[in-house]
Write a structure and sequence with these properties.
By secondary structure, the protein is an alpha+beta fold. The chain has helices at about 5-20, 25-35, 40-45, 50-55; strands at about 20-25, 55-65, 70-75, 80-90, 95-100. It has one domain (about 25-100): Nuclear Transport Factor 2, Chain: A (Roll). The protein contains 4 helices and 5 strands; from the N terminus they run αβαααββββ. It has a 5-stranded antiparallel beta sheet.
């Protein structure tokens, strides 16, 4: 009988961990972090991804992932493919880049 509760408990633990691992930030918090110099302004980072090379910006999210603030950009390239780029908001380094087919 105890085994029946094991799987739901494991699933619940996994979901809780994933929710805690990534937290979307609000505009007020982002502005305050920029004002304090904790993260780079969006304009600074967008200048590193010119539309001619990366395409049209489709989506942008700012999240805290495992204690690090991350800008997540999604670009539509001229060839129709979507590029997702995660950037460390403190120093602008690319953490991950993925091209969807």
């Amino acid at each position: 009988m105890k085994m029946m509760w094991l799987f739901p408990a494991l699933v619940a633990g996994t979901i809780s961990y994933q929710v805690m691992a990534s937290e979307e930030l609000g505009q007020a918090e982002i502005r305050e972090l920029v004002r304090q110099g904790e993260i780079l302004p969006l304009e600074t980072l967008l200048a590193r991804f010119p539309p001619r090379e990366y395409g049209k910006l489709l989506d942008l999210e700012v999240e805290r992932e495992h204690g690090t603030v991350v800008y997540e950009f999604e670009f539509l390239r001229a060839d129709g493919r979507i590029v997702e780029i995660e950037v460390d908001a403190r120093n602008g380094s690319i953490l991950e880049q993925e091209i969807e087919d």
